Description:
Belongs to the transferase hexapeptide repeat family. With 313 residues, the protein is α/β, with parallel strands linked by helices. It is built from ten helices and 15 strands.
Amino acid sequence: xxxxxxxxxxxxxxxxxxxxxxxxxxxxxxxxxxxxxxxxxxxxxxxxxxxxxxxxxxxxxxxxxxxxxxxxxxxxxxxxxxxxxxxxxxxxxxxxxxxxxxxxxxxxxxxxxxxxxxxxxxxxxxxxxxxxxxxxxxxxxxxxxxxxxxxxxxxxxxxxxxxxxxxxxxxxxxxxxxxxxxxxxxxxxxxxxxxxxxxxxxxxxxxxxxxxxxxxxxxxxxxxxxxxxxxxxxxxxxxxxxxxxxxxxxxxxxxxxxxxxxxxxxxxxxxxxxxxxxxxxxxxxxxxxxxxxxxxxxxxxxxxxxxxxxxxx
Length: 313
């Protein structure tokens, strides 16, 4: 596999030079994986691990060397690689990848908080989804992850009043990934959009940190109302597949929403709501409180069934 050269299409910063030095040396013959890299933080390890995984994958499947080089190993940083993969995935015959790359990298370079969120999302997917075999696997192929990162860029542009281009990104993400998130929506860190097909999140929705959302979930309004009209999802919440949460309501921290539920009222923290319309397991008077481990992290989707007395097969 060819070593990385100094003709990457991104700008050159001190941080990039440090990472790019690591990348170049990493792919030199005879470079030791045990060599300690100076001043690496825990977050930087995600990028370094991606480079390790890329090298291992190419050794197993040499046919992927050009693809991995273009997508990961030729880049100076995670920001550059992310801008590249999104620009390729979201481009079409009328919207060139180079144009999108320049837009995305300009936003990412001035918004380090987006890259920190990206790293948290990578870790979240790797830890919570047993189908994810590596960071590279997620980065290159998980459309929920990619849709979330594209939204982070679109949201930044939305807050900068660049609404036309933000809405364009939303449209392309919807077409490419079947995930429709309004650029005005606020999304936290450590997010897992599992499978992600059919996820819809409205303009004034807020999603906290460490939330896991499965496919077919809608965080929507209740009609034609304007203003603040979408759900507010607390930290550590798990939302099962096919769920609709409608209106400006609150889902408390650490709550669990069972698959296929329709939720139109507030859900207290650390409780389980399921059904259409959704009801609390244990009822209002004797609500069953969940364990301290947030369901958004544990991904436990079925423990409430034992408390549902009319569940039979």
